[in-house]
Amino acid sequence: MSEATLFPPIGMLAELTHRCPLQCPYCSNPVELLKGNRELDTQTWAQLFRQAADLGVLQVHLSGGEPTVRRDLEELVDGLAMRGVYSNLITAGVNITEDRIRALAEAGLDHVQLSIQGARPATTALISHMHSAYEQKLDTARRVRAAGLPLTINAPIHRHNIEEVPEFIELALSLGAERLEIANVQYSGWALVNRDALMPSREAVEKQMEIVAAAQERLRGIMNIDFVTPDYFATYPKPCMGGWARDAFMVAPDGTVLPCHAAQTIRTLTFERFGERTLREIWTDSPGFNAFRGTDWMQEPCRSCDRREIDWGGCRCQAMAIAGDAAATDPACIKSPIHARMGMLVADAQAAAKTDKGTEFIYRRIAQVREPV
Ligand code: SF4
Ligand code: FES
């Protein structure tokens, strides 16, 4: 694809670190987590953000791991604010003082997205592997609102908390959130390793969809509820990342620039690090970014499908993980020749749920390297 046909990126996800005090088994980070000594320093992140702004990026999502473990976060936020770039802090909300939140707000932070693992303290402790996480998260939510920052609650949904969806809705309302994201877990990274332990049943998913639809109607104008659909139960896939290298990208803690968080599971592709080339060069000219841009790479049935510029063939990493071919139609699509495999994987997970394999998590830990199943 030539540079002339490219659009500038709008959004960027900056994984500032893989360090995190929590150990959620659904984490989207790669299984091979990077230690702190591999992270870009303050100056390099600041330079990268300046180049992102020059390239057209309007929103930067500061993520991790847990981004607040970076002591330079205020400085990085300040740099973004100076360039007029909207900054969103994606946080687990533990070990954060009131002063820290105030300092981030003063530095120009625009928005906070706080993840909560369960609407009940025991569920949050089970999933996060931290006993006091629930209380700390609620304190953080209140401090965010007290600092005048808009708040989104992110609720990653799986078998162990899908029954708590009505409670999540009430909790988000009570915390003054403007938005609640009911996000069914995407099975990549650590979630793929833990798929059998996390996958909900079809009945639970269907009930959840009814509850969310009714709440969206009831709370219109009061609180927005976004629903991230569960791929394994879908008819058509989501346009993952809005389409490969179409209007957003992410940067790993060591500066590797990627089209999405799981792109490195496609071993046939190589990705470049910021510093080896400029951000503009990587966005416009990297073979890894160009591999699945647009529609020219598509095979049938995507190639002749009238949805090809709606969902862009779905998720390349899910095609890799399940079909073994990153250029295949996402198996979440009903037109995929192996769509039935999704149902079989759900059935396998339900069978595993009755055994130890289905109840034991492999918690996210640095250096606990396992190959995805
Ligand atoms: Fe989307 Fe491809 Fe399925 Fe068509 S065939 S709906 S383009 S994934
Ligand atoms: Fe890589 Fe969907 S996670 S394209």
Automatic annotation (TrEMBL):
[4Fe-4S] cluster binds at residues 20, 24, 27. One of its GO terms (molecular function) is cyclase activity. It comes from the Bacteria. Residues 6-218 form the Radical SAM core domain. Its EC number is 1.21.98.4. Its cofactor is [4Fe-4S] cluster. Binds 1 [4Fe-4S] cluster. The cluster is coordinated with 3 cysteines and an exchangeable S-adenosyl-L-methionine. Pathway: Cofactor biosynthesis; pyrroloquinoline quinone biosynthesis. The keyword Oxidoreductase applies. One of its GO terms (biological process) is pyrroloquinoline quinone biosynthetic process. Belongs to the radical SAM superfamily. PqqE family. Catalyzes the cross-linking of a glutamate residue and a tyrosine residue in the PqqA protein as part of the biosynthesis of pyrroloquinoline quinone (PQQ). PANTHER family: PQQA PEPTIDE CYCLASE, RADICAL SAM DOMAIN PROTEIN. Interacts with PqqD. The interaction is necessary for activity of PqqE. HAMAP family: PqqE (MF_00660). This is PqqA peptide cyclase. The lineage of its organism: Bacteria, Pseudomonadati, Pseudomonadota, Alphaproteobacteria, Hyphomicrobiales.
